[in-house]
Amino acid sequence: MASLYQPELDRLSAWLRYAIPGFSGPLRATRFAAGQSNPTYRLNAASGAYVLRRKPPGKLLASAHAVDREYRVQRALHGSAVPVPRVLALCTDERVIGSMFYVMEHVSGRNVEAPTMPNSVPGERAEVMDEMARVLAAIHEIDVDALGLADFGAPGAYYARQLSRWTRQYRASETEPVADMDRLIALLGERLPDETGQRRLVHGDYRIDNLLFAGEGTECRAVLDWELSTLGHPMADLAAVIMQWRLPPGPDGRGLAGVDRADLGLPSDAEFIAMYCARRGIAMPDDFGFHLAFAFFRMGAILQGVKRRALDGNAANPDQGLRLGAYVPRFAELGLAAAEDRTP
């Protein structure tokens, strides 16, 4: 699946000429290496560069890989305080390339794969983290009514819905029992928070490698990968950032565990949370341990799905999928530990 086959390219090129004004071929497609969920391709044509995001082929879990939702939210956000690529066209006809897809503009920028930012200096790292907090706060301050996103998430308590959804997804992809995941699911059900006044747009997978920064400087040019976006509790996004930082450094964890953050110019967990809260003008969160525990649970459920797809032959990278799936018990363990600490 390194690229699209020529018959698919031919059908895609014909569809793009119809769907995108000014498009002209010939067309080449190269798949981006990163990502285990929705396959993403760079399209090079005579009329310019584009990016295509598609559902993966094969049997999929219900409600997963919703590229149409990605398209909708990015279309609504374009021109707002949240930087996103401009989407150009959505195709629901699976006869074109075998699955639903959408096409957006290609945004030139710098991708930061790890929060350690090894090629940066302390001052630049601090500025990137401040920008990361600013953009996350901007997402959570979006007026969903004004942008036509008032129905972008189901009504009712976000965490109760999410716990139910990801428990179903986890059970559907379960390959062997994990006792700590069972305990974590039960604990989260007992600690569901009051969500009065907390219904906001949430990204669902907010982390530094899903942001594009300017080639020179630290401005965020685009927030990518809106597959898990919905309306819900903003602390879920904030906790997802902190969750990743509590993982080990390296290509799998891409975290900050054991790193001397002060030496690198990186904020502590509490300092980043304070930066975010200051941007929004809100108080520090109560019972942050619940939000963090949920973030570990959801990521464990996602990795279980990656493992299941690898075993079923539908993963983008089966070997990597199996390797990542082996971390599910560790995420459950970290989730239980996070639930014991109610402070940031």
Description:
42% of the residues lie in helices and 12% in strands. The protein is an alpha+beta fold and 344 residues long. It folds into 2 domains: 6-105, Phosphorylase Kinase, domain 1; 110-339, Aminoglycoside phosphotransferase (APH), C-terminal lobe (Aminoglycoside 3'-phosphotransferase, Chain: A, domain 2, Alpha-Beta Complex). It has a 5-stranded antiparallel beta sheet, with helices on both faces. The chain has a 3-stranded antiparallel beta sheet with strand order 6-8-9, with helices on one face. The protein is globular, with a radius of gyration of 20 Å. GO terms for molecular function: transferase activity. This is Aminoglycoside phosphotransferase. It comes from Roseivivax isoporae LMG 25204.
- pLDDT < 50 stretches: none
**Can you count the helices?**
11
- Helical residue percent band: 40-55%
CATH fold name of the largest domain: Aminoglycoside 3'-phosphotransferase, Chain: A, domain 2
Structural class: alpha+beta
Query: Quick one: CATH class of the largest domain?
Result: Alpha Beta
Sequence of strands across the biggest β-sheet: 1-2-3-5-4
Could you tell me the radius of gyration in angstroms?
20 Å
Q: Assess the beta-strand content as a share of residues.
A: 5-15%
Q: Considering the protein shown, what is the CATH homologous superfamily of the largest domain?
A: Aminoglycoside phosphotransferase (APH), C-terminal lobe
Number of strands: 10
InterPro entries: ACAD10-like, ACAD10_11_N, Aminoglycoside_PTrfase, Kinase-like_dom_sf
Domain Aminoglycoside phosphotransferase: 29-252
GO molecular function: transferase activity
Pfam families: APH
